[in-house]
Amino acid sequence: MFDKARHHRRSIRLKSYDYAHMGAYFVTMVTQGRVCLFGGVRDGQMQWSEYGGTVHHQWHELPKHYAHLALDAFVVMPNHVHGIIVLTGGDPAVATAAVGAGLKPAPTVPRIGRHGLSEIVRAFKTFSARRINAHRNAPGVPVWQRNYYEHIIRDEESLNRIRQYITENPLQWSNDAENPERIEATA
Questions:
Q1: What is the dihedral angle through the alpha carbons of 176, 155, 164, 83, rounded to the nearest 10 degrees?
Q2: How far is CA 86 from CA 59, 102, 142, 150, in A?
Q3: Domain locations in the chain?
Q4: For residue 12, what are the CA distances in angstroms to 15, 149, 150?
Q5: Which residues neighbour 30 within 8 Å (Cβ) at sequence distance 6 or greater?
Q6: Angle between helices 117-135 and 50-65 in degrees, nearest 10
Q7: What is the value of pTM for the model shown?
Q8: Which tens digits make up the pLDDT trace of 21-56?
Q9: Distance, CA of 26 to CA of 134 (rounded, Å)
Q10: Contact predicate 103/153, CB 8 Å
Q11: Domain spanning 24-173, CATH architecture
């Protein structure tokens, strides 16, 4: 029986914020059950499996489907991905201007159209899951957790800090909360 109190999913999105506004967004998506499907980290370098390569390819295909989108830093990890999506308004030259100095909180900039961040993330997950499941002959099996983490990037300092975090993420895998083999320090 459906129990509204028990089955209700609380939104983690910023209330009254329009995620279709021009701006930069940091996103993290995690595999279903945190399964290390995309490869492994060896000597601080991510080594993709076939599925990790598929995810990488599908991420870089997104601008072909959404003219108002530019991609920034991105990393495929064993069981999650981190990336920066920039909604530009359709002009690729705007991507450079929209990221970094002068980047304003999205509520103060014009709305760019009907495809917001959630639609783009949904499409990425769908495209990549279909191809992965076709390779492993497992149609309809969930690849991704239902939700995703997002953070609105509001200034150049934040952008640079997030870029560094993404770039260095494989070096931090042994301490990553998503690493199922991480050894917890005991006090």
A1: 60
A2: 13, 14, 27, 12
A3: 24-173
A4: 9, 8, 9
A5: 79, 80, 144, 145, 148, 178
A6: 140
A7: 0.81
A8: 788 999 999 999 999 999 999 999 999 999 999 999
A9: 28
A10: yes
A11: 2-Layer Sandwich (3.30)
